[in-house]
């Protein structure tokens, strides 16, 4: 496996740093050299996979609530007959 090195200083120490570049409406994460600060890559601040997992969990929770409401409505309907 190749060893990642900074294109500017040649060192191999990288870190994640929060950043909001000028004219950007969103925070980003820079992968930067921990020695000289040269930016090697940029990532979304919010991980899309984690966000999808949260949304999926919420959809499941809402689905369960709808099932419970349907069951209660069926019981009310039965009681009114
Ligand atoms: Zn560097």
Q: Any overview of this molecule?
A:
With 81 residues, the chain is α+β, with helices and mostly antiparallel strands. The chain has two domains: 1-45, N-terminal domain of TfIIb; 47-81. It is built from one helix and three strands. Strand 1 and strand 2 form a beta hairpin. The longest helix is centred in the C-terminal third of the chain and has 33 residues, at 48-80. The radius of gyration is 25 Å and the shape is rod-shaped. It binds zinc ion.
Task: Summarize, please.
The protein has 81 residues and is α+β, with helices and mostly antiparallel strands. The protein has one helix at residues 48-80, and strands at 14-19, 28-33, 39-44. A three-stranded antiparallel beta sheet has the order 1-2-3, with no helix packed on it.
Q: Uncertain runs with pLDDT below 50, 5 residues or more?
A: none
Q: What is the CA–CA distance across the termini?
A: 73 Å
**Total domain modules:** 2
Provide the succession of SSEs: EEEH
Rounded to the nearest angstrom, the radius of gyration is 25 Å
The assigned structural class equals: alpha+beta
